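Predict the 3D structure for this chain.
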Amino acid sequence: MRYLIILIILSTTYLFSQIENAEIIIDSDITFEAAIAGINIPESIKSNLVLIDVYYYSFDDRLHQGQLLVHKSAAKDLIEIFDIIKEIRFPVHKAVPIVKYGWNDDVSMKENNTSAFNYRKLKRTNIVSYHSKGLAVDINPMQNPQIKSGKIAPEGSVYDKSMRGTLTESSQIVKEFRKRGWIWGGSWRSSKDYQHFEKRTN
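Done. Predicted structure below.
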């Protein structure tokens, strides 16, 4: 009986080691220079940006590597949170710098892409968004859409709390962001932006 228990322990250990050493699917592995290509970014913003690797289980239940372009002051928070995302296997479809989508947020969202930096102004305003500083991140837009004035974006998205990859008030991920001083768009009153987290600065 003792030898059977030892055999089970060794088999389980081997299984977990195989899982941990399983091939990582690369969603993004580009250079910093490639991540900022094709757009004019003020030097005051560019000098504060860093490109970080993040790891997560996608909806295929396999381990993926993606990248986020973020403000250096947000890097530690996001690395820690994505470590938790990986640990609890909260599914993230993919995380690719938005340069891949020609800096088009609408295209990126429809591809269910999780992204951070995007140098742009808020629609129909002259206000530079927190994404333009690398101080905001959008997670799984198709599961966590923006709902404003009865309109939902991206097109075809659905907010269903029972769906995998959806963020809710009780989600551990939401709590981890809040613990680090981030604001969740799902708690806004005039509109809901369930995908969106931002770290406000003075």
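The longest strand covers residues 49-57.
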